[in-house]
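Ticket opened by: R.M.
Priority: normal
Category: complex prediction / small molecule

The reporter submitted a protein together with nickel (II) ion and asked that the result be attached to this ticket for the collaborator who will pick it up next week. Submitted input follows.
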Amino acid sequence: MTDTNLPARLGEIFRQLHRHPELALEEFESTRLVKQVLTEQGIELVETGLNTGAVFRIGHGNGPVIGLRGDMDALPIQEETDLPYRSCVPGKMHACGHDFHTTVVLGAALLLKEREAELPGQALVVFQPAEENTKGAKLVVGSGAVDAAQAFVGIHSYPSFPVGTLGLKTGPVMAAVDWFRVVIRGQGAHAAQPHKSVDPVPVMAVLITALQTVVSRAIDPFSPAVLSITHAEAGRANNVIPETAVIEGTVRTLRPADREKIRECFHRITESVCAAWGAGCEIDWDSAIAAVINDGRLCDVGREMAAEMGFAVKEQEDTMGGEDFSEFLQNRPGLFVRIGTGLSYVNHHPRFAVDPDAIWPASRYCAALTERLMRETF
Ligand code: NI
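Result attached by the on-call engineer:
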């Protein structure tokens, strides 16, 4: 029995989520809405112990357990669209389409529920909180609620593709993200007596320049990597040599070996440059998220399914942005699919918008792909 009103109902849910964006770890109303809609249909809630987000289980088959993940959180951006359902919360907006992801995955859960008796395996449908601060996936994985999943599918809105087009690609599709902060410890003095100081400012200048050579000299030019220093700060007065200088930034890589090599070079260069001038240094290195690497076999199945369902398929465009979906792929294969949501401003732009016509076909695709993967062997 298919609910013929489902596409319209999903449209309403999407507009409701869009009007009421909630930031990372504050997705209380969105979570309440999802739980209400799905438990009303008798879908089993899996306990996570988390305040926001939710995991549901569908199916009784003995075949593979497939995870399907959508994220829920919004961004601290003032919406500038003219949509009739634009955000009614000042300074908050669904500018990355996570309202779309929540709706699509919710629709897929309802479709899977309709086929529950026939499902050869089980689906674990994940509504993940806090993607934007890269904390949510770790929380869900850490809760143990998705331990049984043998493969994971994730989706993302893509405003460079029209509705009806999917982006699929084997291999790395989103970068690993590392954050760094270096405190250079010198010795302060009067600006007129540099010989009595260990001035951290020229050390910082040399260090910034030296770090520019890490990617260009240590990494294969055919392998994408980025090292950006985004914040540099030292001193407050024009007549005082400061004690310390600070730099901060981020590293993006697609390949684990590059990630490790950059980290190693960064430490060696930073420690050596500081030592050369008698300064000390403290390096904080946060390996925030791994790269999202699409499994070849899952990608082939995703393409077949897309062709069967009448989607156009394009190669995903490369990006050095990060996605914590990678947390779900640490010990199992996965597939991250970009879903064309109609041409629009880019993700995180105050005029970013999703065409709601993309919702229903995406829900059908996610449900069909999840079921299809239950017929694979893992
Ligand atoms: Ni996003």
